[in-house]
Batch of 3 targets.
Target 1
Amino acid sequence: MISARGLAAHEAGADLVPWDFERRDVGPGDVQISISHSGVCHSDIHLVRGDWGEQEFPVVPGHEIVGEVVAVGADVTNFSVGDRAGVGVYVDSCRECANCVAGQSNYCLEGMTGTYANPDRRHGGFTQGGYATTIVVDQGYVVHVPESLDPAGAAPLLCAGITLYAPLRRFEAGPGKRVGIVGLGGLGHMGVKFAVAMGADVTVISHSPEKKADAEKLGAQHFLLSTDQDAMDAERYGFDLIINTVSVPLDTNVYLELLGFHGVFVNVGLPGEPFSFDAPRILNQGRSIVGSMIGPVSQLQEMLDFSAEHGIHSEVEVIPANYINDAYGRVIDSDVRYRFVIDGSTI
Ligand code: NAP
Ligand code: ZN
Ligand code: ZN
């Protein structure tokens, strides 16, 4: 076994504290990564705080992982020691169902194996994530992080980035498309950068008036304050695609009304509470409500390469390990510009 140190919660709602644990040995198909940076996703906080129900503890969260390959198994062909590598939200899947075979393993019909807090389908026990010194992952779930990207700014691409890139591609964000990003947080700010790079007309829809200047800096053409009823009314039918990244329940009807003909509302936020809307809101204009969950490994690589090509990275505040509990509080207060990233050397 390989010794690792992580930041763990030992029960729901508990602070994260340093914890020594073990990783499996590097198997023939495995890559071992020494973690240099690990992003802090709101999903980590939901899970640790118990927003999504009961689960196994202790948990080392973290699924936005960047580091250096320090060992590879005998059968590994795609990675070498010294490569910069990344791991996202899942580290395994059944590899046999129709979706896995079709390269859509994030939608594995048997359920993907999440990077943390999931039963490890091949090795037993539970997975532990990226707020740690090192991780061992099967090569099929590891990606190359281009050297031209700053590693801290690249880490959040592994979850926040792909979660917005995938629906923007699926619904063909590009010239002539009016795209609204609801919530300018970790996910939302990546959505703005990608949608702008794809050539769409981009509006940030936010409940925080002070984020207007940032929205413009990030490249958004417009800013819509969701608490300004007159401004919201004026944008009725104003969008083709709206992606909701908000971490608390919203009045969905208000956002559906912003969609024009055949407009699509993509929900990626996961507050853990039921989602409701009035049927006439989707009948009108033939609107759709769809969900989207991260993206497959192949698209993760495509998104990282797109990011390198367009110079896209996350806006980050790099923190030492002992700041993690304060950082959680600040994420909940929407007081982060726009992603905390843990400096792995401080764990
Ligand atoms: P985040 O950085 O905290 O951003 C969430 C944003 O929601 C905030 O910046 C804020 O934007 C808005 N918000 C927060 N509290 C609000 C309130 N009380 N009223 C109205 N708006 C509020 O979180 P994140 O890491 O981007 O994650 C967002 C959500 O996506 C989480 O629920 C997370 O679990 C989920 N998620 C889903 C996937 C997926 O695959 N579908 C992947 C990753 C994360 P404004 O200040 O601009 O309004
Ligand atoms: Zn995440
Ligand atoms: Zn599968």
Target 2
Amino acid sequence: MSDLGRIDGRTKLFGLIATPIGHSLAPAMHNLAFQRMGFNCAYIAFEVGNDELEDVVTGMRALNLKGFNVSMPNKTKIQPLLDEISPAARFIGAVNTVVNENGKLIGHNTDGIGYIGTLTERGVDFVDKKMTLMGAGGAAKAVAIQAALDGVAEISIFNRDVSKATKIADVINKQTNCNVNVYKLDDLDSLKSEITNSDILTNATGVGMKPLEEQSLIPDTSWLRPELVVSDLIYNPRKTELLEQAESVGCKAINGLGMMLWGGSKSFEIWTGKKMPVEYVKKHLF
Ligand code: NAP
């Protein structure tokens, strides 16, 4: 999809450091956008885990890469290797975008912005609403914090490891007007009643993607109702079991593609100072 034939001696290099990485749509998305904008830039995915991270960041500085994305498992571990962290990324405690400003590496986080972007695009009214959020990993934290900052009134977080959910709740309850409560994921009575009282249900766990494809944390579609917006951060597969359940009941069902697109679009803007041609990218990528 990318036009690598245009690479020359002046091409500016961008990248993604993560593992596993083969499934990522980020290279196709950014190369399409660079090409459309006529920028002499290229974006490459690098298979990088925590063990190689420090050497890789040193190498990126030496090669003067203009920017890169960071994904699992490097989003928190990269922070001490950078020169500056944006207030939002510091608040979230994770970095997914790095920009090289005259040799200074500055970390940002666009995951939560991507999530809110996809809700906005799909016409979901989230201000003063209640969300039930399943998961308390890096993506869940970014989603919860951005949702709280952007006006969601109440969030109920369910996770296997409840201590992770409690840490997110403490940050949000202290620093925003949003009210967060936490529950263990296997407390099914609470999960059912919190979903019943929510406007939005969001899955931010790996349940629904490989190796847990065809699984859903919702045991019965009777827990869902047509007015509930159901979103899943997973985009591979495009329609998880949870989204199948949601559609069968008549809910608005939103997969993770939009979050990736709008989060990526914010990264593109941080790197280039220009808006990503989102409609063009959508047309050619999705
Ligand atoms: P992470 O930090 O590793 O967190 C994983 C989360 O999934 C944790 O809450 C974990 O619970 C939970 N989990 C894993 N296996 C589970 C199971 N069998 N049953 C119940 N819960 C389980 O990963 P992440 O970066 O937050 O990613 C989470 C999901 O979001 C992934 O599916 C990822 O693909 C997706 N994502 C999408 C985008 C996008 O742009 N669309 C961006 C980032 C992430 P414990 O804490 O109890 O282990």
Target 3
Amino acid sequence: MQVEVIRDPKPSKIDHLFVVIAEVEDGRSEMPLPPSLEAVIRKALTGSAFSGRIDESITILSEEPKKLTLLGAGKEKELTIRGARAAAFSIGKIARRSRDRRIAVVFPYSLPDLGEAETTRLMTDLLSHADYKYDQYVTADKKEKRLPIDCAYIAPAALDSRASRKAQTEARAISGGVRTVRDLGNGPGNLVTPTWIATKAREVAEESGIKCTVFGRKEIERLKMGGLLAVNRGSAEEPKFIVLEYAPKKARRHVALVGKGITFDSGGISIKPAEKMEEMKFDMCGAAAVIGTLQAAAQLELPVRITGVIPSTDNLPSGSAYKPGDIITMMSGKTVEIVNTDAEGRMILGDALHYASELKPDHLIDFATLTGACVVALGNECSGLFSNDDELAQKLITAGERVGERLWRLPAWDEYKESIRSEWADMKNSGGRWGGAITAALFLKEFVNCPSWAHIDIAGTAYTDHDTGRDGKGATGVGVRATIEFLQSLS
Ligand code: BES
Ligand code: MN
Ligand code: ZN
């Protein structure tokens, strides 16, 4: 929904007012409420037995506004971004269900470690996604009528109109980037091909004044990107290698972002089981995160030079597909013995990381739905982080904490390298099951020539297979918010 940050709401213009209220131990605390709504909110609070417990909600019919819903946020001292995201998501759902056209939201708290402006920015961004649904392919008669909802986020009194406007502008840039990621991620594999990703990247680039270069098969061959070409051999689609460049004049730092763009991962000759294979359309969410982040960064006019690098193909079996036992020479010149064609992400990323390293960025960060092992280790609540630079790792973790995209660091110690040792080539493309997320990171490291590199494994966070109460089913848009926060901390 479209969210506007406003300071002085007119109750008559609101169909449905949502107030998020936390639980307090010793009676109701006097949280600051917007003057024009204070009376009606206080009346609702005293008139109901509402306590603010998490998951609690009461809807009251009144005059102006016509409906008022109180939503519990749990203990005030234990407010989390996770809880705030759940509240935003519930608001979207309730508003959709009750066919509201104009809603307003009051969230009279600041989130932990965030000030009022940052809380407002994050809530506005989260609310814009609260009623998100990818329903482009649900045909007319089955599709429920989804009328647009206008949402007013009531700014805290401490925020002046300039600060409110800024929070709104920033939230729109970020939620726009997140939307790009979700739409690309949710798009089916027959639509979202490498060519489609390239077209989308070009579109975003044109809108945002970014430079976009797309290499097709010829150029990829000329660059000797053996990893990308090997994975593409089973495919009927042309591989693409996409480079996005955002280079503002005032930039002092250069950050390269690399994203895995496998538009469908069947596993190839080492084919995956049929169950849930359809989820492998999400295997390009790293690529999407790079495009969405560049889109948001350019719109925010961040004073950082950013280069996005995306290798893209699908991974399918065929008579010409690469196969176990093959030895592939990568762009860097290193050779890889293929033992599992399903370890394809690292093959295309090896070339992309080598390419990006040659640009000599200050920081190099890659995003990839790389391993099931990472999901086994960490589940769906955080992404796996690997880095050769403690300071970069810490900055990314902190940035993620501030926007609700958790990262957990795993080791990339050389001790684990033994598992990808090969008799026939410089390395094998898979180290087997044990420590699979780590050995994948170590494989990538072989192609990195940058003292400040981070690899973010988003296999568990890029999409969900069910409605979580914080996100609907499908692509989550992970990567954009944390990376933007990190880039802002650099400038
Ligand atoms: N795209 C998958 C990883 C994945 C798994 C993403 C589950 C999202 C959810 C990746 O290409 C893959 O197949 N990895 C293999 C590596 C193995 C063959 C070494 C895996 O994790 O099983
Ligand atoms: Mn795979
Ligand atoms: Zn994959």
